[in-house]
Amino acid sequence: MYDVTIIGGGVCGAAVAMYLSKYDLKCCLLEKENDIAMSTTRANSGIVHAGYDPEPDTLMARLNVRGCELIEEICEQLNIPYKKCGSMVISFDSKDEAHLEELYERGIANGVRGMELINKEELLKREPNLANDVTGALYASSAAIVNPWRLCIGMAETAAKNGVEFYLDSEVTEIEKINGAFKVTAGGKTYETRFIINAAGLYADKIAALAGAQDFEIFASKGQYFLLDKTSSWLVNSVIFQCPTEKGKGVLISPTADGNIIVGPNAESNNERDDVSTTREGLDFVAQEAAKTSKLVDYRENIRSFSGLRANSDKKDFIIGESALCRHFINVAGIKSPGLSSSPAIGEYVIEILEDCGLIMTEKAEWSYPEAHICFAELSNEEKAEICKRNPKYGNIICRCNVVTEGEILDALDSSYIKPRTLDGIKRRTGTGMGRCQGGFCGVRVHEILCKYYGIDATEVLWDKNGSNIVAGKVGESND
Ligand SMILES: Cc1cc2nc3c(=O)[nH]c(=O)nc-3n(C[C@H](O)[C@H](O)[C@H](O)COP(=O)(O)OP(=O)(O)OC[C@H]3O[C@@H](n4cnc5c(N)ncnc54)[C@H](O)[C@@H]3O)c2cc1C
Fold first, then answer.
1. DSSP states of 284-344
2. CATH 3.50.50.60 fits 1-81+145-217+314-372, yes or no
3. What is 82-144+220-310's CATH topology?
4. At 106, which helix (H) or strand (E)?
5. Does residue 309's CB lie within 6 angstroms of at least one atom of ligand 1?
6. Which residue among 28, 36, 45 has the greatest number of ligand 1 atoms within 8 angstroms of its CB, and so is best to mutate?
């Protein structure tokens, strides 16, 4: 019997798992995909919002501001790519300027520190590549950029190190109530548990329905992006938003924590929950909107386009709390933006909810973060020489664009608590395949490493989700 079972291994499930791992409890996390961070958490803007956007006195406002503080500390502990670069919401006319003042007031009400309203001259001094018809900006110094999947993996690894059990390829298909507890069926196995945390993102309403607790609906809203090469990193220094509308925060231009530039997203409502395709029309809209912010975006530098799906709900705020329809079933649902920014604060808040529900929480005497893996590219030349002498695998560069070595890939395989099994799993942990060639050079080499490490045939290696096998067979061999 588990005390707590978390459904969903996105950034929210991972954060809940990390905070639960501080207590003497038996917990597990069930994820339907073959890895964690496989849904909304892997395709978003990667902004740690300061917290001036949500309406005051909402969960979004409170958890965003607290999450923004916590992420900085977690990223430092786990050596996760993070940069406190600040954000600007820019104005183009007096209507926008009034909106910036409103956002400033809202930020004050939400407890955001480090905001200032700046004029055109100051804005262009800090961001010289913006369009000349800007009139000013709201600057927030606490906003940051983070690698979103590394944050999720880091928190999940911490949870796993401290005793939370992770079950991948475990899609929850049935939830039965038995004697005041639950029997959860996932991936052909059953798990008995006293509490369920429903962090299933785009499918949270379906999971609630399985428990007879559905009183909300999720609607997928797609956002498409361009990802520009690091050669475009001169374009902006901080996250540049236009004024938000009822559709969301609008198209932004931002540095990423890995040194690229991101441009997007648009907002397309009523999407299929698994449709992450990009379209000419969607990307054209993004480019057209971004041109208002800067005329200097060079789309010849685009190395990838991608899209993410927001889990919008029919409620205005995050849906976090024990379901009114089912005791001990706790929803962490409708977690749209700023969900990434809020995630650690959501984890903390769920602990409070579980305590209020009567779960006895005894803190463990010992708890620690896992050791951060070596990042070869960040070492000095002397450190590089030293580490190559100790282990020549660090001298074998596998990803040329991002300078990722065989040693780092083997570290990710050997010392991860949740082991990557796919090319994208290695990418999310080490940065392979994220450069200009997008895996053209390193893909085949990572493929070889995975074959050797797991002792599997080339045909069994996956690029990403189940079914994404890369090699079909040998040339000249019949597939019949
Ligand atoms: C375009 C876009 C831009 C965004 N930008 C930002 C931003 O800049 N800053 C910010 O703070 N937030 C941003 N967000 C929001 C943020 O990405 C999300 O709030 C966050 O990733 C949600 O995490 P989650 O864990 O709730 O959901 P997910 O990451 O979707 O995780 C849910 C998990 O549940 C699993 N699951 C589903 N069904 C089942 C089942 N039956 N059994 C087992 N597992 C199941 C899924 O496979 C998935 O792994 C953005 C979102 C989008 C789409």
1. HHHHHHHHHH-TT--GGGEEEEEEEEEEEESSSS-EEEE-SSSTTEEEEE---TTHHHHHH
2. yes
3. D-Amino Acid Oxidase; Chain A, domain 2 (3.30.9)
4. helix 94-110
5. yes
6. 45
* 38 touches ligand 1 (CB under 6 Å): yes
Instruction: Provide the token pair at 314.
Output: 């029919």
Model pLDDT for residues 414-433, shown as the tens digit of each residue? 999 999 999 999 999 999 99
Question: What spacing in Å lies between the alpha carbon of 154 and ligand 1's midpoint?
Answer: 16
Cβ(88) to ligand 1 under 6 A? no
Q: Does ligand 1 have an atom closer than 6 angstroms to the CB of 11?
A: yes
**Dist. CA 458–CA 460, nearest whole Å:** 5
Ligand 1 centre to CA of 272 (Å) is 15
Q: Ligand 1: which of 16, 36, 41 to mutate, most ligand atoms within 8 Å of CB?
A: 41
Q: What pTM was computed for the model? A: 0.97
For 321-370, how does the pLDDT look when each residue is reduced to its tens digit (9 = 90+)?
A: 999 999 999 999 999 999 999 999 999 999 999 999 999 999 999 999 99
